[in-house]
Every structure is written in C-alpha cells, then in structure tokens.
C-alpha cells in the first residue's frame, strides 16, 4: 500500500534524513520516533507529496494519501457539521453520523467551529480523516491538545475503523497510542551533515 525506498528528505534546502526505507501493507501502521528536530514532520510532508524528496522512491496509489498536521485547518465561521460536510464534498467522501459519534462531536455538530475549545477543534480536525476516505494517513502528532479520553477515542478510530477497514498509517507521536504498531527510530537516519544532531532549534 505504501513503499518507501532509500528516501532522503530536506528542509529549508538542508538535508535532514537520508536512507529511510519501509513498507506498509493494508491494516498496518508505523510509529515514527526520534528527538525534536530529527525530521519527523519533514518526512511526513514528503511522504504526503507536499514537498519533493531529495532522492529515493515513494510508491503509493495516486491520491491515496491524506496528511494531518499540527494545524486543524478548520474554518471558524462554519459549524462543525459544515466543516465536515465541506471536506467530504471536496474529497468525494461521505459524512455519516458514525463520524460524529467516533469523534464525540454529536452534541457539537451545530456549534460554530470558532467557539470550540482547543481539544474540540482538534477532534473536529481529526474527524476530517473519517470523511475524506483516503486509505493512507500521514499523522503528525495527532493527539496534541487531546485529553486522555479523546486520545483513546482517536486510537480506537485508527485501529477499529481505519486500519481494520484496510487502511494504513504513518504516525509521528510522542505518546503511546496502544496500537501495537512497529516503531521506526529516525535517529540513525540523520543526514550526514547533521550527524549527532537532531538538535532542536536554538533559542536565538
Ligand atoms: N522552514 C524551515 N526552514 C529551515 N529549516 C527548518 C524549517 N522548518 C524546520 N526546519 C528544521 O528542519 C529540521 C527537521 O524539522 P522537523 O520539523 O521535520 O522535525 P521534527 O522531528 O518533526 O521535530 P518535532 O518533534 O520538534 O516536531 C529541524 O532541524 C528544523 O529546525
């Protein structure tokens, strides 16, 4: 479903990671690990096609991927239901009651998104993944702002709906989602110029 071979990625023109390879079949997830600044976001953005790789190969069916970044990407002036309906329409997906239930949004469906709490906005942003109908998910710290209950809810969606339904996912996360997915520590793949790096941005 997703095959990555000898991939090198860059950020701001500088190589960040090199020689990353893995494959994912239907129903499988991979958790990316590594210290701040190692290149998890850069790798996910490259896999999702938002930036070109430096070298290497990414094989995935055309239009199969969906990327969820730290940003929720929701429109404040639309209701929760209108936001989800918009995404469903744009991606040719389906908005069902099950999506509202899976993300605990049933009671909030008619609320203006701009009036939601940070965690509720996050749940709305993540519910997008339930309507776009894309089989390959690239998730960048999906549980930021979520309380423990919501983290479990999201893990349940991933495991019981997305993966059980034949999808796959690459996830950068610092917390345990309880998915029993293999982990890929990116530390050994730091590009040569930054070897031993992976250092976070300095306070300048
Ligand atoms: N716009 C940019 N221009 C130049 N360098 C950048 C830019 N954005 C990020 N970087 C650098 O690229 C490297 C990889 O960043 P990236 O965001 O991919 O790391 P990360 O593993 O996702 O980090 P974190 O765990 O902190 O989210 C870091 O050294 C970072 O400072």
UniProtKB/TrEMBL annotation:
UniProt keyword Translocase present: yes
Cross-referenced PROSITE patterns: ABC_TRANSPORTER_2
Key words of the record: ATP-binding, Cytochrome c-type biogenesis, Hydrolase, Membrane, Nucleotide-binding, Translocase, Transport
Top-level taxon in the UniProt lineage: Bacteria
Domain ABC transporter per the UniProt entry, residue ranges: 2-204
A GO biological process held by the record: cytochrome complex assembly
GO MF, any single term: transmembrane transporter activity
Listed EC numbers: 3.6.3.41
Pfam families: ABC_tran
UniProt keyword Transport, yes or no: yes
Designated name of the protein: Cytochrome c biogenesis ATP-binding export protein CcmA
Organism of this sequence: Roseisalinus antarcticus
């Amino acid at each position: 479903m997703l095959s990555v071979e000898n991939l090198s990625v860059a950020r701001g023109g500088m190589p960040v990671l090199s020689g990353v390879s893995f494959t994912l079949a239907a129903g499988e997830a991979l958790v990316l690990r590594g210290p701040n600044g190692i290149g998890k976001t850069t790798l996910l953005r490259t896999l999702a096609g938002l930036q070109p790789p430096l070298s290497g190969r990414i094989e995935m069916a055309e239009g199969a991927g969906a990327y969820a970044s730290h940003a929720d990407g929701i429109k404040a002036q639309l209701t929760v239901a209108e936001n989800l309906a918009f995404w469903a329409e744009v991606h040719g997906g389906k908005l069902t009651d099950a999506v509202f239930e899976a993300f605990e949004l049933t009671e909030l469906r008619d609320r203006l998104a701009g009036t939601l709490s940070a965690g509720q906005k996050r749940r709305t942003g993540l519910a997008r993944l339930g309507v776009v109908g894309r089989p390959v998910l690239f998730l960048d710290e999906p549980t930021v702002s979520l309380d423990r209950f919501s983290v479990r809810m999201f893990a349940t969606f991933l495991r019981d709906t997305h993966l059980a339904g034949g999808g796959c996912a690459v996830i950068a996360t610092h917390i345990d989602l309880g998915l029993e997915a293999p982990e890929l520590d990116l530390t050994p793949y730091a590009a040569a110029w930054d070897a031993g790096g992976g250092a976070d941005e300095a306070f300048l």
